[in-house]
Design goal:
The complex is a heterodimer of chains A (about 180) and B (about 140). Chain A has about 180 residues and is an alpha/beta fold. Chain A is about 30% helix and about 25% strand. Chain B has a single domain, classed as Response regulator (Rossmann fold). In chain B, helix 1 links the parallel strand 1 and strand 2. In chain B, helix 2 packs parallel to helix 3. Classes of the chains: A alpha/beta (about 180), B alpha/beta (about 140).
């Protein structure tokens, strides 16, 4: 299965809306880790479900990743993937000042040969996701950042870029095209 | 504030609040959104913003950073402290294009970051989108 983890913070929602507008149900499970308050999660998810044809889900924990699904990490919870497939939600300590943390989700993956991993860091303050993207690269993922010149806040993708030899630096349009190209 | 809009009587409505000590900015944004189907609240300070929230304001907040008294970040911290962070989308609204890294602990409460000067069409589209999200 193709698994894409997207990390995003301030300025990310508007680019996520742009990226997912018109996206069909691609054969990929996508997990979005957006820094946001818990009260915003369901609205963010509902907006996304209006824009794309993916099955948008705010998990409660225990769900299994499936192609064509877009999981929105609930605010105030870390999301981990057990055995790369089952969603676990935790209220453990904040990491990089935030919960959910992108690093936590990305670093919960384990190397395996049956899945293809992809990691992506979008606009945001701070450096959450930088360690996680480096880890994903080490376990064989293809890793990308949003082109900082297209970011509202460039700190997060730049922090990831400093740590990791990323595979591609993509504009929002190119990210959209990449997701659609997954077969 | 638009005299026809009072948070007490608009509880069921999503609205826009602009928090800025610059009267010109308040006037400009108010003019831009005058014909939109939601009320616009103008707060001249962080304290005034908190007062509106205590009265029940829900919706989108455009928050200036550099203000006398409580600055934008301190106002957000106070919103969190008072447990008022419900049904809100907050965007910083500032001339400063790079946030201070010491404020990382507040980033999860800031949905967007709009820099001034702004393109009116872009601001309207963005606020409309966020208001739709909250409907």
């Amino acid at each position: 299965m193709n698994i894409l983890i997207i990390g995003s913070s301030t300025g990310g929602p508007r680019v996520i809306f742009d990226i997912f507008t018109g996206i069909p149900a691609v054969p990929m499970a996508i997990v979005i880790v957006q820094h946001m308050p818990e009260s915003t999660t369901s609205r963010f998810a509902r907006r996304l479900s209006q824009l794309c044809s993916m099955n948008v889900i705010v998990p409660n924990g225990g769900e299994v990743l499936k192609p064509g699904s877009l999981f929105i990490t609930p605010g105030d919870s870390h999301l981990l993937l057990k055995n790369n497939e089952t969603i676990i939600l935790e209220k453990s300590e904040k990491v990089n000042f935030v919960r959910p943390s992108v690093d936590v989700t990305m670093m919960s993956l384990i190397p395996d040969s049956k899945n293809s991993f992809y990691g992506l860091i979008l606009s945001g303050m701070g450096s959450d996701g930088a360690q996680g993207l480096m880890y994903m690269k080490k376990i064989g993922a293809q890793v990308f950042i949003q082109n900082p010149d297209t970011c509202t806040i460039r700190s997060m993708p730049e922090a990831a870029f400093r740590l990791t030899d990323v595979d591609r630096v993509l504009s929002p349009e190119e990210i959209h095209d990449f997701i659609i190209s997954i077969k | 504030m638009d005299p026809s809009t009072d948070p007490e009587s608009s509880r069921s409505l999503s609205g826009l609040m602009v928090v800025d000590d610059d009267e010109d900015i308040l006037f400009t944004v108010n003019s831009l959104f005058r014909k939109r189907p939601f009320p616009v609240f103008l707060a001249h300070s962080g304290k005034e913003c908190l007062d509106y929230l205590e009265k029940g304001f829900k919706g989108v907040i455009l928050m200036d950073i550099m203000m006398p008294g409580l600055d934008g970040w301190e106002t957000i911290q106070e919103i969190v402290n008072r447990d008022l962070m419900h049904d809100l989308i907050i965007s910083m609204f500032t001339a400063k294009d790079v946030p201070d890294t010491s404020l990382d602990h507040l980033k999860e409460y800031v949905f967007d970051y709009i820099t001034k000067p702004f393109e009116p069409e872009n601001l309207i589209a963005l606020v409309d989108d966020y208001i739709t999200m909250l409907d």
